[in-house]
Each structure stands twice: as structure tokens, then as C-alpha cells.
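It is worth pausing here to work through a concrete case rather than discussing structure prediction in the abstract. The textbook approach is simple: state the sequence, then state the predicted structure, then interpret. We follow exactly that order.
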Amino acid sequence: MTQQEIQEEILKCKQSPYYFSTKYLIVKNHRGKSVPFATPLTEKQFNKMFKKLENNERNIPHRTR
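Step two, the predicted structure:
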């Protein structure tokens, strides 16, 4: 990959958590086998849910001991 292609791929991943998750994440199934991440949600639904969770995370005060 060229440097420009890498930058374009990074931008795609930043813009779409769905794209990043379905292209790069590997999870373990109930049998412990590594499998590509999959979701029944559409890209639009997944990204909306992710953005909502991301916004909630920013609003939760972090406590220190």
C-alpha cells in the first residue's frame, strides 16, 4: 500500500466504526475460535449506536482514587 492509500484507509476507519469493525476486528466465538467480527446491524444502525455510546462515554465523569 502506498502512503496515500494508508491515509485513505485510516480516514475510512475514522468515519465508519462499522467499516473498521467488520474489516479489522477478530473476536472469539463461544468455542474459543477466532472469527471475523460480524453484526446483524446495518452500517447506519451500527454507526449511530457507536456514536451514541461514544458521546455517553465522554459525559461520564472519571473518578480517581
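Step three, interpretation. The radius of gyration is 15 Å. The mean pLDDT is 90.
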